[in-house]
Amino acid sequence: MIKAVSVRNISKTINGKKILDDINFDVYEGEIVGLVGPNGAGKSTLLKVMTGLYSYDSGEIYYYNYNLKNDFEKAMSIIGSLIEYPDLYYNLSGRKNLEIFKKMFKNVSDETINEIVKIVEMEKYLGKKFKTYSLGMKERLGIASALINKPKILILDEPTNGLDPMGVKKIMGILKNMKGTTILISSHMLGEIDELCDKVIFINGGRVVNIKNKEDESKNKKHVSFVVDDYAKAKILMNRYIVNDELEVYEKDEIISKLNKELIFNNINVYRIYEKNSLENEFFDIIYDKFDKKWAF
């Protein structure tokens, strides 16, 4: 397998606070990799470092054989990125915006623009001004601008932030169909990330704390939610195990079964026990310390 991205020992301090602390990971050609973690974990800072928006204190970043610091222009020539909100001209049409981006690169033809517009399914709306677009359409045009140079690597920071469920599915569907493009995406949409990505990198406190490959065996613990007729009473009985007021539990099958029996024994009707998203299981395992019931931020 060919390494498309190699991040080695990246650290970054802002205003005396270490935001990134010795970050290391690899992304292989054609992989879709998710970057997840709680707010303030360092995800956006890391992606800004990786796209040249922030400098970094130490470490190395390689895109194929290009060192980001020493071969900046060559490295950036094979990267497309959308960091935070699409920064496009409100009073210009979608096509005019893309034509401006086109001038930033060599040999980008009108045919290329047409191909990209088809990928993001925006053909019908290019003549309209950007300010008239819905949030989902703005995000899709933002992705189109990131693809204008036909990058080998696409880096996206929260491209579905604020979108409704249909908008989220549309963006994720577009990314899933980009065969051969290496994609690194940060998102809080754990269900969609779990479905989309080949690999998920967990970051917390400015460090990579876990890397989950799709083929990894599922853990023994499950993140389940109890639906009952008496939440107040159930909360008292389950107090040792619940992780929030919604009677969610992160435990092994035998504990979950024991809790179910305890509720029934105490005349509490259990209407349903359903498992939460599998990536949420991993997320809980990393950021939640069940021994002292404190969020591990």
Net shape: globular
Residue runs with pLDDT of under 50 for 5 or more positions: 289-297
Instruction: Measure the end-to-end span.
Output: 34 Å
Number of strands: 15
Oligomer: single chain
Helix content: 25-40%
- Total helices: the number is 10
**Major β-sheet annotation:** 6 strands, mixed
Protein structure class = alpha/beta
Overall pLDDT level? 87
What's the helix-strand series? EEEHEEHEHHHEHEHEEEHEHEHEE
Compute the CA-based radius of gyration.
22 Å
User: How do the strands line up in the largest sheet?
Assistant: 6-7-8-3-9-10
Q: What portion of residues belong to β-strands?
A: 25-35%
Compact description:
With 297 residues, the protein is of the alpha/beta class.
Descriptive notes:
This protein is of the alpha/beta class and 297 residues long. It has 10 helices and 15 strands. It has helices at 43-50, 72-76, 94-102, 110-119, 135-146, 165-176, 190-196, 231-237, 253-265, 278-287; strands spanning 3-14, 17-28, 32-36, 58-63, 66-67, 79-83, 153-157, 182-186, 199-204, 207-213, 222-228, 248-251, 270-275, 288-289, 294-295. The chain has a 6-stranded mixed beta sheet with strand order 6-7-8-3-9-10, with helices on both faces. A 4-stranded antiparallel beta sheet has the order 2-1-4-5. The chain is globular, with a radius of gyration of 22 Å. The two termini are 34 Å apart. Mean pLDDT is 87; it is low at 289-297.
